Amino acid sequence: MSRAGLAALAAAFDLTESDIETAAERSASQVQRMALLWQSQSTPQDVATKYLRGITKRHHVDLPTKEGLAQRLNRLSDPAWWRRALRKRFRVVEHHAILRAAVHKHASPYVSAKALRRFEADRRRLAALLAHRCAGR
Fold this sequence. Notes:
It is built from seven helices and no strands. α2 (about 15-40) crosses α5 (about 80-90). The protein has a domain at about 15-90. It has helices at about 5-15, 15-40, 45-60, 70-75, 80-90, 90-100, 115-135.
């Protein structure tokens, strides 16, 4: 992939947590609607799988490795699965930062500053979630 192509992907993949949440909900909802339509019309599995492959390709995520269509639909209908898949795309953003020389001994020795901020925000989000869950006991 060219540097320009990588830069474009990195810009597209650098989403905020609320953007990821919105995209995950939208994608899962789209798959749920299509699954109901396919069920009512008895759509062949290969047609449904081709459509699912197109959805995941548009979002630059991998199709779930589960064998059957029902298992793939279960995964792709789950917003939590989409959130995890969309977060994995941050690897491209970090790789682009490395190529731009934003990660090196004198700038930021291990990860980019943006990746560090994202990590710290995730830690705060998870700590708040755990505190909320533990307080409910």
